[in-house]
Amino acid sequence: MCPVTQSVIPWGTYKETPVFLYEISNPSGLSLSVCEYGGILQSLRFLDAFGTMRDLVLGYDNLFDYQNDNNCLGASIGPIADLVVNGQTILDNRKIRLQQNTNGHCLHSGPAGFHKKLWQGTSIPDGVCLNALFSEEETGLPGHLDASITYRILSGDSFQILFSAVCDKETALSFTNHSFFHLAPPTYNQTGIKSALSSINGHFLQIYSDYYESLDKNGLPSGNYFPVNESSLDFTRPRALCEVLFPLSSMLYTSGGIDHFFPIPGIGLRPMAELSSPDTGLRLTCFSDMPGLLVYTANNLPSIKGKQKIIYNRHTAICLEPQAPPNAVNVPSQRNLVLLQSGQVYHREIRYVLSRFSPDRNTEL
């Protein structure tokens, strides 16, 4: 168990109920701030290769802005991450209709999703455990769901997000975390004050997959996988994001950038992707036991004011979201990846490892 320092901070109210922010840090300077509302990773701080403390996730400085956020900044996502096409499926031998919140489809479980729920936090020796109950009337999915999300700081400058759940009826589950990562420095105005995030064109990305799921003409997941070889989505080796985003690759016109699922071979906890920035010498490696990884380059992020009044814009961050394939509940070959039987325990893990490297030599520090 990694020694950590913790503090619990009152952070406003939600429907007259107090909301708390849990701050967790280790001796080497890795620190997390986790909010009970939405199970949100509000901050992720780490020293870069030059000794500057960086906050590596987009977010807000107050609870009010999170309650009015439609971008799921840092949020826990569930019961079903990503799309359910047409907001409909069959579960528990009956037709299920979910609220359509995106062009006639259900995205991230709609307004009844984890990201709009007040969770009950409890400090544990190396982190915080969040718990919540969801009724069928609340989510639109069969049964009563008992879910938990645990954030833990581990040794080696890494942290873990554990998802657990059980339901009393057949249902479908696919949890993830929707943090927007940005590893480079912000830009400054003429008075030397941080003003905006730069684009992620200088970030390098590697994805440990030889395949991607294609999108149809409407930008919906097709359920079909194609080789990444010789495509704009070939990240089998570290590749600068500017090569596909600036200008936008022709195969990414429909989605406005990367918004694709990559199946990751193997089972159990394994590496999924690696993100790095030569500007700070920071590297973030994502591990999970999920079926694959959804990569999203903030294609639809509007111009908004975030932490420290810094402006966030399109393509200023990237989400690395381990999860089941989008719309898997409606794809016969993928449905088994999300089905959960009555009384069966759902248990999944995401792990992020932070490290520093020398930008001029690309060697670990």
Automatic annotation (TrEMBL):
Listed EC numbers: 5.1.3.-
CDD domains: galactose_mutarotase_like (cd09019)
Pfam families: Aldose_epim
GO biological process, one term: glucose metabolic process
Record's keyword annotation contains Isomerase: yes
InterPro entries membership: Aldose_1/G6P_1-epimerase (IPR008183), Gal_mutarotase_sf_dom (IPR011013), Galactose_mutarotase-like (IPR047215), GH-type_carb-bd (IPR014718)
Keywords annotated in UniProt: Carbohydrate metabolism, Isomerase
Broad EC category: isomerase
A molecular function (GO) term: aldose 1-epimerase activity
Protein name: Aldose epimerase family protein
